[in-house]
Design a protein that fits this description.
It is a single chain. The protein is globular. Helices cover about 35% and strands about 15% of the residues. It has a single domain, classed as Metal-dependent hydrolases (TIM Barrel), CATH 3.20.20. Helix 3 links the parallel strand 3 and strand 4. It is an alpha/beta fold. The chain contains eight helices and eight strands. The chain has an eight-stranded parallel β-sheet.
Length: about 270
């Protein structure tokens, strides 16, 4: 069994063939799905799916690119929903920083404030974090440590293969591995994967984004977690069944057992 720990099933690109996409996922061994919160405008759709399907869950949060979505949303209301398993995806992303140095500093501060707020919410509601980090490893790590985020832990979504973040395994953080591991230019991730503790690995797609080889250029979907698991098995020299078992056990542990016992497909 595989749990796709990060897939944007609330994305419009799944609407036209949602049932067929789910069936392909089941055929590939995927039995549960977690929809991360990226922009609050998609939360109603995420909740609708979670209430319709027993094996779909969601998180509430705001991606660092979508911080305007913080306004007027009752995050605690969503966090109290029985199918809400985490807070995020939240974090730091400097990839698109532009403008003057003053403008860049202001944007970094805005992201930091939002990140700290969501970490504190996670601790308040006692749910793990889904953390997005891009080109901001040092700052994001310092904020996680300063806020004692290890109290609830979480997952480093689409782990960026930065050595600096490996020590967060000791702070109750897991590492999300997705389609990037199959890319030809993913040598850094391929080399660092064996250094991640096996009990800290979880599988994700980030669908509809980051489609693994050989399907790059098309929409990503949960069925492709099988390709991720296969590549991980090759790199770690383990049977693929062991990879899927480990990642599923880790997902259960990370999300507090909230996923267990609910694999009724509708």
């Amino acid at each position: 069994m595989i749990i796709d720990t990060h897939v944007h099933l609330d994305d419009e690109r799944y609407k036209d063939d949602f049932e067929e996409m789910l069936q392909r996922s089941y055929n590939a061994g995927v039995e549960a799905f977690i929809i991360p919160g990226a922009h609050p405008s998609t939360l109603p759709r995420a909740v609708e799916l979670c209430e319709q399907y027993a094996n779909i869950y969601f998180a509430v949060g705001v991606h660092p690119y979508d911080l305007e979505g913080l306004k007027g949303v009752d995050f605690e209301h969503y966090a109290a929903h029985p199918k809400c398993v985490a807070i995020g995806e939240c974090g730091m992303d400097y990839f698109r920083l532009e403008g003057s140095e003053e403008e860049k500093l202001a944007e970094k501060q805005r992201q930091e404030n939002a990140f700290r707020m969501q970490i504190r919410l996670a601790k308040k509601v006692k749910k793990p974090l889904i953390v997005h980090i891009r080109d901001a490893s040092h700052d994001a790590k310092m904020i996680l440590l300063e806020e004692n985020a290890g109290e609830v832990g979480g997952v480093l979504h689409c782990y960026n293969a930065d050595d600096e973040l490996l020590s967060l395994a000791n702070e109750n953080f897991y590492f999300g591995i997705g389609g990037v591991v199959t890319f030809q230019n993913a040598k850094k991730l391929v080399n660092i994967l064996p250094r991640i503790p096996l009990n800290k690995l979880v599988i994700e797609t980030d669908g509809p984004y980051l489609t693994p080889h050989p399907h790059r250029g098309t929409r990503n979907e949960p069925a492709y977690t099988a390709l991720v698991a296969d590549k991980m098995a090759q790199i770690l020299e383990l049977p693929i069944d062991e990879i899927t078992r480990l990642s599923t056990d880790n997902a259960f542990r990370l999300f507090g057992g909230l996923l267990k016992g609910t694999f009724i497909r509708k």
